[in-house]
Amino acid sequence: MVPTESVKSALIQKVEHYLQLTAQERNLLSQLETSPRQYSRNTEVVSSGSPADQLFVVQSGWLISYTLLPDGRRQVLQIHFPGDICGLSDLPFAQTTHEVKTLTDCTLSAFPRDALDPIFRGSARLTAVMFSMVMIDQAIYMDRLRVMGRMNARERVIHFLLSTLSRLRVLSPGLGTVFDFPLTQTDLADAVGLTNVSVSNALGMLQEKGVLKRSGGRIHVLNEAYMRETANFIDRYGELDISWFPERA
Amino acid sequence: MVPTESVKSALIQKVEHYLQLTAQERNLLSQLETSPRQYSRNTEVVSSGSPADQLFVVQSGWLISYTLLPDGRRQVLQIHFPGDICGLSDLPFAQTTHEVKTLTDCTLSAFPRDALDPIFRGSARLTAVMFSMVMIDQAIYMDRLRVMGRMNARERVIHFLLSTLSRLRVLSPGLGTVFDFPLTQTDLADAVGLTNVSVSNALGMLQEKGVLKRSGGRIHVLNEAYMRETANFIDRYGELDISWFPERA
DNA sequence: CGACGCGTTGAGTAGCCTCAACGACAGTGG
DNA sequence: CCACTGTCGTTGAGGCTACTCAACGCGTCG
């Protein structure tokens, strides 16, 4: 079950979306993906305040991370997809700062924080690409900040759906306009700062206008151009500028 | 004017807030801080869409970065203080994704992106600390997301002020409860997703209740405990867990 | 002195929230 | 196989927060 060089893991696949890796670099990365483990749907993987000593590579499935306010209000911070390293944002802290739970059945590989050392030491190029991927995430947080700070309910919902679609396309370049969407409307609401009621209204309105269609746990984007325009969506993936990267080691 | 090892630059000072550096590491960092340049108040330093080929170390002064929506709505993304590297979030992109402008007179040192290579290559420890500092920023973006998504006007304003105060204390450990605050109420509003009117009301109310006081461009925090409680504020600075860091090179 | 930026205050409005009820559906246990 | 239960999404009524629009005072700067 230990990934070998010939079986491309989700993480390697994601990194190679940006940069062709050498065998040695793939090898370094695969050290993060030993010991995959299954988690079933709706399982809390990390609870806030526990020791932040390990990180996870998502091999398959969807997860969400979120924080709670003392009064129970919830903010969904991130959706984790295959290829994501989840727990990175707790790297600097002794305790985790948010909860992580599975939305679907998942396969995760855990690794300790110091497993990053060999990467930092072994390949400046890999370090640069990891750094860049973190900065892409940061750009996305900024985009979301803009969405939450300055956009209305419909725009927020649209933006979130487009962002999800874009992220899915990183690992599935052939993905069209239909995708699984295992979040409840309450999850979505907690992600974009609304209530489930407003999300329901917004989605209903968009379906009414023929912009999208829902069936089961799937979304069908019918008018992506309109959606991008409306939510002023910028795709942060697939634009990595590697011109400044160090030479291959 | 070129910083030497004996003159501690803002960046080195900030990094050393977390980690005692070796002479070699200080030397690596100081390479980012050559050629400081003056900028006067209210100057656009970076305009959105320009080539993202250089980054800046803030030596002195305050800056804000922000994005605009097509209709003119604005979202302030970040306040930059001395010691910050500004432009990092555009690292992965060919063009900058937001504007940066000075709020006060500033001194900035520019450096090209590939000036990071020697750091990645020269010190795994320095790489780890830079990585961690970026992740602290990310934790703060998540906190802000929670604020924007789930908190009301008063809570938002309080949170922003506390966060500003905390960041100032990183470089000025002796800082008490009074600090310069060169943002207009519109700047603050654009940072937390409100209007200047709501910010004015919120601040007025807080002053009324004796929680804080304003005079000139300064804020005096009178009841910090109450503020922390109300805004559920968590200080992300000064908790760096370096237990997993690589050994000194 | 006039122009402008900034902060304050008031009146009216709109968008989203709260509360609530209901139908559809899946999972569970008898 | 079928009631029972809980989750999820939808819809409606009413309320509240923050918004828009506007006027005004103050200080700064040309």
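qc> The longest helix of chain B spans residues 124-150.
qc> done
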